[in-house]
Design a protein that fits this description.
mainly beta, 4-stranded antiparallel sheet, 11 strands, about 0% helix
Length: about 130
Amino acid sequence: QVQLVESGGGLVQAGGSLRLSCVASGRTFSNNEMGWFRQAPGKEREFVASFSRSGGNPYYADSVKGRFTISRDNTKNTLYLQMNSPKPEDTAIYYCAAGVKWPFNDIRTPNSVKYWGQGTQVTVSS
């Protein structure tokens, strides 16, 4: 049974930094099968970052490009999201995503995701 457990959320000041973690258990996921999404109150779940199928540069939403960095530690089966210079508009529940549904090639839309974590709240104060 696949489980994704996020941690690291909390309250952070704008301009600070925060690192989210996601530990996957139940199976090992390849690079293109893991990513992060977020959902703010009253809004739809949206893509944040994920790895590319080719192993090249990761994909980022335009709103976080240059501020957030996705990485992973394969020895720990753990995915990370380093959030630098967060803004109040980054406030949301952040979800770890893993597994790619057919016919998608990677994780860049909610419909492409097989497994979700329970989410971790990130609140950015101004």
